[in-house]
């Protein structure tokens, strides 16, 4: 079976939006650094971009269950275009300040929470159930290609040519994405999902009811806990990886960039191959393997601190993350009632992204206390706990995760 023209138009819109995100991801820190040499102030711009998931993520989920995804996707991207064009105007008139840049980063992040949450409620409407894994794999692959491969390279190159160019390019990618979304049949994306599924709280019950439903769902609750632990583990070692590359491998900045590119290739491969691994609904085993590979593999750098070991680690962890993302999203879409999917998705992302922030801080603190090797040990320990948690949650839960 083929995914169909409607899916590929949606995929093109999502990939263009992610390409714009990647461009902006490179351009914002460069812009902040051009306005100040204060490290804390530059970091604050990055924090402003990440903060919206913790502040507005759950509200975005409730909104996604109340409004049509067609409206939300178009409105979120149009809102981002307005913010980006305002920033471009400030840069062209030399009136941009660091507080303005931070506010713009936060506003763009708020719109991104709405868009990303609404987007994950669309896939089950566009493809039959048996193609969910393939569709999610292609979407994750597009996200990796845009966010981690092409986007940052394009953003840095455009910034070197003119500080306003990456933000103008981001506006252009979003404008095309909006047109692609609006080209999809209104009958598919305009109507909101059914609200009468058994066991699903009413939309009017809001965020609290959605969180309550998720807390009572043993498979998703266990998978969310395992995914949060994996994110903690991954963020802990990766937060100090740049220091490890310089101090232990003597690879420097260029070497670190090369490892990032190699890791992105692993993530792309994992996303594209995930549906083949899951064929026949082998979610439980695939999730178990990807959790273990992603969180435990970094300990290899303690046994073999070499360039080749680092290559294996970044490829394996990124590939494992790609498979984990596809499998987890597919399980979430299969088990969650359509009228609740927005709230569950938003709650999931809020918890996982929050765990990533805690993991990065924790990894830095542990490295300062016990040395650069400590975060790799911490990652392995958290990975073992995550494997045990998912093994317990997924056991005996039926053919979906057999």
Tags for this model:
mainly alpha; 402 residues
Description of the molecule:
The chain has 402 residues and is mainly alpha-helical. The chain contains 18 helices and no strands. Helix 5 (98-120) packs across helix 17 and helix 11 runs antiparallel to helix 16. The two termini are 23 Å apart. The model is unreliable at 194-204 (pLDDT under 50).
State the order of secondary-structure elements, H for helix, E for strand.
HHHHHHHHHHHHHHHHHH
Mean pLDDT: 86
Instruction: Please give the share of residues in helix.
Output: over 70%
Quick one: biggest sheet? Answer: none
Please tally the helical runs, counting DSSP H or I stretches of 4 or more residues: 18
Structural class: mainly alpha
- Strand content is under 5%
Radius of gyration: 21 Å
Number of strands: 0
What ranges have pLDDT less than 50 throughout 5 or more consecutive residues?
194-204
The separation of the N and C termini measures 23 Å
Q: Oligomeric form of this entry? A: single chain
- What global shape is seen? globular
Task: Give the SSE layout.
Elements: H1 5-35, H2 39-50, H3 52-66, H4 69-92, H5 98-120, H6 123-126, H7 132-161, H8 165-182, H9 186-189, H10 206-216, H11 218-238, H12 241-247, H13 252-278, H14 283-296, H15 300-303, H16 307-335, H17 341-370, H18 374-394
Helix pairs in contact: 1-2, 1-5, 1-7, 1-8, 2-5, 3-5, 3-17, 4-5, 4-8, 5-17, 7-13, 7-16, 11-16, 11-17, 11-18, 12-13, 13-16, 14-16, 14-18
């Amino acid at each position: 079976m083929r995914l169909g023209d409607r899916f590929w138009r949606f995929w093109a819109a999502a990939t263009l939006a992610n390409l714009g995100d990647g461009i902006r991801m490179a351009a914002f820190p460069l812009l902040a650094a051009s306005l100040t040499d204060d490290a804390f102030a530059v970091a604050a711009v990055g924090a402003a971009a990440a903060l919206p998931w913790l502040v507005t993520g759950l509200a975005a989920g409730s909104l996604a269950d109340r409004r049509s995804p067609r409206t939300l996707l178009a409105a979120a991207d149009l809102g981002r275009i307005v913010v980006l064009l305002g920033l471009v105007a400030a840069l062209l008139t030399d009136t941009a300040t660091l507080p303005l840049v931070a506010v713009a980063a936060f506003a763009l992040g708020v719109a991104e929470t709405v868009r990303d949450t609404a987007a994950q409620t669309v896939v089950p409407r566009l493809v039959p159930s048996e193609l969910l894994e393939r569709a999610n794999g292609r979407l994750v692959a597009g996200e990796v290609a845009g966010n981690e491969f092409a986007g940052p390279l394009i953003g840095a190159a455009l910034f070197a040519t003119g500080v306003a160019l990456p933000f103008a390019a981001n506006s252009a990618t979003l404008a095309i994405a909006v047109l692609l979304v609006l080209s999809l049949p209104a009958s598919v994306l305009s109507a909101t999902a059914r609200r009468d599924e058994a066991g699903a709280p009413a939309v009017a019950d809001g965020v609290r009811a959605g969180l309550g439903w998720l807390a009572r769902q043993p498979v998703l609750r266990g998978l969310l806990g395992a995914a949060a632990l994996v994110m903690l583990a991954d963020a802990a070692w990766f937060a100090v990886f740049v220091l490890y590359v310089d101090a232990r491998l003597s690879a420097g900045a260029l070497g670190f960039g090369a490892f990032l590119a190699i890791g992105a290739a692993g993530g792309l491969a994992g996303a594209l191959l995930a549906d083949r691994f899951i064929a026949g609904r082998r979610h439980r085993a695939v999730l178990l393997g990807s959790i273990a590979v992603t969180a435990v593999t970094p300990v290899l750098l303690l046994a073999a601190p070499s360039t080749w070991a680092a290559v294996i680690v970044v490829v394996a962890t990124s590939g494992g993350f790609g498979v984990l993302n596809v499998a987890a999203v597919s399980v979430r879409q299969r088990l969650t009632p359509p009228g609740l999917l927005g709230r569950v998705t938003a709650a999931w992302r809020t918890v996982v992204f929050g765990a990533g922030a805690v993991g990065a801080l924790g990894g830095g603190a542990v490295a300062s206390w016990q040395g650069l090797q400590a975060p790799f040990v911490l990652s392995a320990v958290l990975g073992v706990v995550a494997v045990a948690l998912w093994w317990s949650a997924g056991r005996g839960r039926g053919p979906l995760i057999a």
